[in-house]
Amino acid sequence: MFNTRSKCALKAALAATLLLSSQANAQDPSVFTDDPIAKGDTPESIKGYEIAARGDRSDTGFGDSKVSATMVLRNSAGQTTERSLSFSTLEKEDETVGDKSLVIFNSPRDVEGTALLSHAKILDPDDQWLFLPALKRVKRISSANKSGPFVGSEFAFEDFTLTELNKFTYAYVGEEEVDGMMMDVVDRFPRYEKSGYTKQKAWIDQDVYQARKIEFYDRRGDLLKTLTLSDYREYDGVWRAHKLAMVNHKTNKETDLIYSEFQFKTGLDAGDFVKGVLQRIR
Amino acid sequence: MRQGRNIVATLTGAALAASGAASAGEWEFGGEIAGEVRYFPQSAQFPGQFDDWQPSGTLQTDLRWKSDDGKHQIVVIAFGRLDAQDDNRTHADLREGYYRYVSDSDWTLLIGAAKVFWGTVESRHLVDVINQTDGVEDIDEEDKLGQPMVKLSLLKDWGQLDLFVLPGFRTRTFPGPEGRLRFALPIDTDNPIFERNARRGAVDYAARYSNFFGNWDVGVSAFHGTSREPRFTIAPSGAALLPVYDRITQGSLDVQYTAGAWLWKGEAIVRGGQGETFFAGVAGFEYTLYQIFQKPWDLGLLAEYLYDGRDDGFMVETFGLTSEAPFTAFQNDVFTGARLAFNDTQDTSMLAGVSVDADDSSLSMFVEAERRLGQNWTAELESRLFFNVDPANLAASVRADDFLTFRLTRYF
Fold first, then answer.
1. In whole numbers, what is the pLDDT of chain B averaged over residues?
2. Which residue of B has its CA nearest to A153?
């Protein structure tokens, strides 16, 4: 699952990362306030929360990012269709809210220019607006559809907010070695309404604290999907997976989300994520 | 095709470089070409109208340029249709052709022809007054002509303010004498009349404030200018209707309240300048059932009530009178509809709706279905049917014009 080359790259980058994150924490250790409900009060839940928090908080200070991506959708017969998208993201102000993001569709051509603006929340429904280029219409849409498929893919809408710490409660499961990397295994349980999952099981590496694999269990408790995150690259202490492969075990369909190189601190601000910008994207 | 793109980009780039306006920037060229056939199963009601099949083809080209810093944009979108049956439907239009300056995210200035949409509801676009309707395209009033404008947008903490100066009023397009979906008398679009302070070439003005407050999205707009909707008078020849355009002043409000799977929507206008000042409104909801039958399918249910208090008087064709206000089909109507999205890789979706006139029970119905084929094609099926139409209802002139449209589009 994790090839040697990327593992070596991980190791090489490790020292710098640890240095950066420890500096960040030393500068301002009080910046994080743990959510007592997300953290829980049993030893397993506290340990699970702390492992998740360590990973999520390594992301702090990324500011904003821009990236383009290709989504490859594969049906059970192996036929593929592709979509290309670009994402802009603005880091949340603190852990009580989520990031703001703008997704623009570049292909297929019939949906080119369609854009989705999201102001993510933690437990309340996100604020979301859709821009339909043919009509020039900006439409506020319901975000109650957490478990629905995102543009026909095996990713659900809720799968795009996987790392919002306080959206879940946690239970530490144990350690496991996978492909030569030591992993912490943590179960997490959605706190928000309308989730399609009862549980997610996450494998988080002990080197740079990033999720490497997540299993999704449906409302009946059965294994529904597996997400494999690979090709992690480090940008000034912030880690991003560049390949996210989702396999649906019930339908045998797969979706790969492949990111190009991320750009960070591009100068985006809150003004680039207001509803009105949807009308001037293209 | 790629070669074609390069040639156009090169030519346009050369033109701009020659004018000294070009920095490197980024060019994009694309478009769509479509073949369409409409079938009318019933015989035409009026002399001169064609029967049965109406084949036509459309081409739309999109040319876009954006400077490297993203502050300067040029968009040119041209549209044309060739129609085998209706000469009026064979037409071309510059849908968009503008230059836009985006300052450091606070304000935006747009100069040129553009399209603007206002509103929230689905059954009627009441507050959406900037662009003229391209009435030969369809009778749903969703196809619009490019409107020349200077538009200043302010995006501030307190919301968005758009200010419009609109020179170059566009008259509405209508099917010709051979066309279906028209009144008993064809409309002579070459001889519009301007009355009640309206005049050809007058400049129109509009302003809009929009923002959201929690789950509420709100837009407040004002418009002063030439009514996009004409009244009609009978031509001296007695063989045609002449469109009559008035100067109007209109204030409007559009809102949406988003709560879970419910979208509550409303639009309202108050308009002066066409007889007595009148009020019109649409209110309703859209409720979505997600993942029905344990499939990824979403089913949206829509219901809207439509009211319009205008004095559109007697049928001009029957009595030879000119009404105080333009005709409307929505005095007191109920719309219900359903939208089914399959959420598959081909984005298959269906929309169906029924409008009932609460006064005379006249009924019109539509079904639309759409699916992508491969990466670059889409297929669409549309149908509109009229039932139980009262002879005094506006729909009486189109009651024999049930139709089915099939359209195949190739994107490039």
1. 90
2. B345
- All domains in chain A, ordered by first residue: 4-59+69-83+144-264 (2.50.20.10)
Q: Kindly state whether A138 is in contact with chain B, defined as any CB-CB distance less than 8 angstroms.
A: yes
Asked whether the beta carbons of B263 and B241 are under 8 A apart, the reply is: no
Instruction: Kindly give the residue spans of alpha helices, DSSP state H, lying in B166-315.
Output: none
DSSP B4: H
How is chain B split into domains, by residue range? 2-411
On chain A, the residues whose CB falls within 8 A of the CB of B263 are: 140-142
With 50 as the cut, is the pLDDT of residue A16 above it? no
The ipTM value here is 0.89
Would the pTM of this model clear 0.90, i.e. be above it? no
B280 closest CA partner among B315, B253, B245, B302:
B253
pLDDT confidence tier of residue A78, bands split at 50, 70 and 90: confident
Give all strands (DSSP E) within B260-357, no chain letters: 262-272, 278-292, 297-308, 332-341, 349-357
The answer to whether the Cβ–Cβ distance between B217 and A140 falls below 8 Å is yes
Residue A218, class by beta-carbon neighbours within 10 Å (0-12 exposed, 13-18 middle, 19+ buried)? Answer: middle
pLDDT tens, position by position, A29-77 = 446 788 888 888 888 888 899 988 888 888 888 899 999 999 999 988 8
Q: According to the CATH classification, is domain B2-411 in 2.40.160.100?
A: yes
